[in-house]
Design brief:
With 231 residues, the chain is α+β, with helices and mostly antiparallel strands. It has four helices and twelve strands; from the N terminus they run E-E-H-H-E-E-E-E-E-E-E-E-H-E-H-E.
Length: 231
Amino acid sequence: MWHTNHVPSLISYTGIPSKDKISVKWFNSYILKPEDLPDQELTAEQQALKDICFLMRELSPVQYPKQKDSESRRVEIKRLNKANFSKVFALWHEAFPLLQSRRYTHYHFTYGMRNIKGKPVKSGMSPCTFSNEEAELCFLWKEKSDYYKLELRFRIGSKLYGLPSYFNASFFVASCMNPRKMHLLNSLMDCEILALFGETNYRMLFLKVHYEAYFSCFVDQLRDTYEFIDK
């Protein structure tokens, strides 16, 4: 995530499963470089995921300009961050079909990779799943007496879902009912919309007196791309 100096990326780990094979009993170590790999033959699927993990690790760090940097350097850093963000998003789409068959997957907030050292701490590893159900962003549009209310939702089939206010995973949406069931977004525009509305708890209010002058163009652009549901 941008504010943590790192965009969401895949990180492999080794561990010991529980006796019933449902959960991880304990975690041994992160796999951050080739020499961390266990001495065993990988399946083709594991090899592909390993390669994606290493690529993501190279591309995920977010760069920030230094105080002395020129304007051209600042523009270049911004361009590089955007390009890397796009590349990591593409890698997630490449990895996603492989992740759906993985038995042990977890979400961990890395704080800019500062927490990624040694071995995973079990208390910080939340089990999660990656769903192949396609999630489509959409909006609820409500007209009140003196303002309009716009709320971000996502749809799977005919069912609408709200987003948890405490969780924004950049490339993914999850529902309030199941915040660890990850649905990969379809486009970079979806990611940008999610980030924008995440700053306002996925809702925006527009006073009618100001709407035509300041907000109608923005809302019309959203209407051109996303479904609006009048309430």
